[in-house]
Amino acid sequence: MPAEILKPPIKISLRTAALIAGLSILMMVIAAPFAELFVYPKLVIPGNAAETAKNILANQTLFISAIFAYLITFISDVLVAWALYILLKPVSGSLSLLTALFRWLYAAIGIASLLNLVTALKLLKGDEYLNLFKSDQLQAQVMFSLNTFRDGFHFGILFFSIHLGLLGYLVLRSQYIPWILGILLIISGLGYLGTALQPFLFPNINLDLAVYTFYGELIFMLWLIIGGSRIKEPN
Questions:
Q1: Which residues, other chains included, contact 31 with Cβ-Cβ below 8 Å and sequence gap of 6+?
Q2: What is the pLDDT of residues 147-178, one digit of tens each?
Q3: Could you read off the pLDDT of 110-123 as tens digits, one per residue?
Q4: Where are the domains of the chain?
Q5: Using CA atoms, how far apart are residues 202 and 196, in angstroms rounded to an integer?
């Protein structure tokens, strides 16, 4: 048997896990607002398929950059879930794994939904589709793909909100992370839960609760990057 197989697995310290999680969240903080708050609202006009198609065709590079920004966000979610699992494993290994699984599920749904944006761009750029659909039909297909992406994204946020709730509980139980961060994470989770359920329960109400509660994640990110370096390894 090769000697390499007999070597023990590399142990990642809690400090390193905290830093990886914090930097990955920071990457998300940069990429996600660019796609979600700048590019998407600029190009996609709700209820106006013709104008939306025109905007995407005129700004293809910007639209593609938004797709990659979303992709970077979801990949960062995978890294964050893994690092937080290691960070909170000393509190409860099984519950920490379950917490990570909910975030991984959210990331998987997000990446699958992201394919709808690729489909929308392909429909607009492909000449073969012009022979299959009339102009208004093609634009309707594009709008359908965009709306499907939004629906999938919102559905995935439901699992993300559960992740934050469980994460907050683990932080409250830990003795090496400030308990107030656990409260803030639970509040953030409730905000995302309201955002996820709003399109399905209250479609006529345009209220994004996560806009007012996501600050808990930012504070947690800062602690992971700055305060995480002072974590003491448990016995």
A1: 69, 70, 72, 73, 76
A2: 999 999 989 999 999 999 999 999 999 989 99
A3: 999 999 999 999 88
A4: 12-158+221-230
A5: 10
